[in-house]
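Tokens in:
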């Protein structure tokens, strides 16, 4: 994974979903780009509040070693009101500029429509119509979104890929703690204890101390 793009519908989704993987890849020398698709707008979200959240994102990404944060500033919690062609164009233009070989996307079955729309927009861009299409696409799980879906009625998150983040779990927790506006006290799922608990459970599934779980959407093994 030389150049990675993590598509986040909202600031903090990327840390919850694959913050440990981001840190591990960055430490190994990969370029790690974060694409924050939306920004809250008045009157639902004040400008002051959103400036604070974006500053928190910058701090978290610095902790994880991200190469660059890209902001599309589409309307948060209102993507279903934006023409699909407009969302697809914004996401596609950003991914064109990054040219990632690996994509990490929110899971299409997440309860939040913004997550579903971002997944679809990124998949539109990732259509393998040239040798430059991403070689790997994974969907990550987001506490407070993926786990609130209705398996059996909506798509279920059934991970088949795991990345060991035993050496990065504390950095992931610290990065999420940078989101002071989003972090909650236990037993809320957006708490340090819940993040560690999920990582521990996913890790023991594959006999390691901590892991992040993903669903492989597509992998392309090209000829040398």
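Residues out:
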């Amino acid at each position: 994974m030389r150049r990675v793009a993590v598509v986040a519908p909202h600031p903090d989704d990327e840390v919850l979903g694959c913050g440990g993987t981001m840190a591990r890849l960055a430490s190994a020398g990969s370029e790690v780009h974060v694409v924050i698709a939306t920004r809250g707008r008045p009157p639902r979200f004040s400008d002051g509040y959103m400036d604070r959240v974006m500053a928190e994102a910058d701090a978290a990404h610095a902790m994880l070693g991200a190469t660059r944060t890209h902001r599309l500033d589409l309307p948060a919690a209102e993507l279903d009101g934006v023409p699909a062609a407009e969302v697809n164009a914004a996401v596609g233009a950003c991914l064109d500029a990054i040219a990632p070989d690996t994509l990490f996307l929110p899971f299409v079955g997440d309860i939040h429509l913004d997550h579903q729309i971002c997944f679809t927009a990124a998949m539109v861009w990732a259509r393998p119509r040239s040798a430059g299409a991403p070689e790997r696409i994974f969907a990550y799980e987001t506490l407070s979104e993926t786990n609130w879906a209705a398996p059996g009625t909506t798509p279920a998150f059934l991970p088949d890929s795991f990345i060991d983040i035993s050496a990065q779990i504390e950095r992931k927790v610290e990065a999420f703690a940078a989101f002071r506006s989003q972090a909650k006290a236990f037993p809320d799922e957006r708490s340090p204890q819940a993040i560690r608990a999920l990582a521990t459970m996913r890790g023991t599934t594959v006999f390691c101390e901590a892991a992040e779980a993903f669903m492989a959407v597509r992998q392309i093994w090209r000829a040398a």
